[in-house]
Design goal:
The structure is a single chain. The chain has one domain. Helices cover 29% and strands 25% of the residues. It contains seven helices and 13 strands. The strands form four sheets. A four-stranded mixed sheet has the order 2-3-6-7. Helix 6 runs antiparallel to helix 7. The two termini are 29 Å apart. The N terminus is likely disordered.
Length: 225
Amino acid sequence: MLLVLRPNPGNEDEPMNTEIVMPDRIARLKRDSKGRPVPYFVAWKDGVPDFKVVRAVKVSECTVNKVCWICGEKLGKFLAFVIGPMCSVNRLSAEPPSHFDCAKYAAQACPFLAHPQMQRRESLIHTTEEVVEPPGIFLKHNPGVTLVWVTTGYRPFMHNGGLLFDLGEPTTWIWYAEGRLATRAEVASSFETGLMKLHDIAEAEGQLEAFDRDLKKAMGLWPIL
């Protein structure tokens, strides 16, 4: 069930939330003309960052060199993935891991992740010769909540010419909505949006039993309140 929700930097005209403490690693990143840090994965063109375009080479660089997807610095033992609710069911990500503090900052400060009413901008993987769609089945709607999934291991694999990441068991997980901790009701509501599509894929592939098992495990990660 290769259903993937790719977190997106959102609208590059949206101001950065300056009330959230910025990790030192992110503070060391290059800035755009408005003073906002530019994530490691963002593509640049003519000296200007395009927040909606991902440099394809960064996916492999982060994986091979074991550096953070957001800040580009070396990772440690704990690896954090910023994912949507459906990815907590099939445990897949289209993006490499980040530092825990970088991931938390992104979940709170990124305009698209923090503001569910915002419209998603098209997020593409950019190469020097062409623009290609990310692997997996891409959900483009904003789910309203974001999950920071922390693990000590993961498995990269190729799918449709691109890399996907099979997530290891979580050691820590935090749900966010509107830049704050999400409630159980908010997480439950977000599942209703994409769950039917994931169910239909599992049914078509004859994997409903596995789907039910994975969904039950994902619901076990929901906030208590």
